[in-house]
Design a protein that fits this description.
Layout: E1 6-9, H1 13-24, E2 29-32, H2 36-55, H3 61-69, E3 71-74, E4 85-88, H4 94-107, E5 113-116, H5 123-127, E6 136-141, E7 150-155, H6 161-173, E8 177-182, H7 189-205, H8 211-222, H9 228-235, H10 237-251, H11 260-267, E9 281-282, E10 288-289
Helix pairs in contact: 1-2, 7-9, 7-10
The chain binds 1,4-dihydronicotinamide adenine dinucleotide (NAI).
1,4-dihydronicotinamide adenine dinucleotide binds at residues 9-15, 32-34, 38, 89-92, 96, 100, 117-119, 140, 142-143, 235-236, 239.
Length: 302
Amino acid sequence: MAGTRIVIIGAGVMGQGLAEAISSAGHEVTIVDRTTKLAERGVKAVGESLDREIGRWGLTTSDKKAILARIHPSSDLSEAEEAEIILEAIPEDLAKKRALFEKLDQVCNPKAMFVTNTSTLSISEIAALTQKPERLIGMHFLNPVTKIPLVEIVKGLKTDTETFSKAVAFAELLDKKWITVIEYPGYVTTRIIVPLLNEAMHVLMEGVATAEDIDEAMKLGFGFNVGPLALADMMGLDVVMSWMMNLLGELSDHKYNPCPVLRKLVRAGHLGVKTGRGFFEYDKEGNRIASRLNGHAMEVTK
Ligand code: NAI
């Protein structure tokens, strides 16, 4: 895979994590967002993540410099023209993803592999609009990409074996353990975690325990590294809600119906770590700060 030209579309939570992982593995990578400012903001966030690693003695300042130098921000989709791997990490909205892949299909090399990082949408449906649905595949990386060792490789109905093999090689390049998933809403991880997050939110809404205690219970009681409410904050509450809406629409199962607390926080623009407030509060670097929120994460009480 040495010298493979890789482009990421979308410089949000996942795009940033993918850029950090790819560049840390020694590869050049271009990251494209709707504006150069957004793409640059993504690279800045990668820098902050690397600073946290330096703080943990996991990295040196010169490593950081080298990693950032390999990430190229852009707002120009034609950056994908010569790419061999194009990773899509834009919001979980079928219409947006289809519109993007339609455009990419027109500008990209016919041999390029299209990878979508979708968590809940149909790979076959996204692929259907491209001229070569056999070269589109799902690679469901999890957040934070550099820390989570897993990727679900999701084959659409028409994904061919060459594309699958390339996806496996890419997963191995990033040192990820991969599992194969046959296309089904939510695959393995999202399908199982979403009802759990939703249930934690209902426990909070019903006043059974505070947000801190719910997370503490799941960490100490079941060995979770991160409690469910903090996890939802890390994922992005808007993203979590879009997964629930997609699963609810696809499977009509009430267990995916977003908890009213989640709906309320998203409507208020409290999207978790990326906006500084969700179930908990965070500083600009994304570190948790002492919360001024009441036990329901709704009102500032201090
Ligand atoms: P996000 O909301 O943090 O970032 C999305 C980025 O895409 C934004 O910077 C936005 O400006 C950009 N964008 C929107 N339309 C664009 C376009 N047409 N061209 C270029 N850039 C565009 O979203 P996040 O969390 O990174 O999610 C991205 C995808 O990854 C979604 O499909 C999500 O389901 C999936 N995913 C998210 C995980 C998470 O924990 N947040 C985990 C696994 C998958």
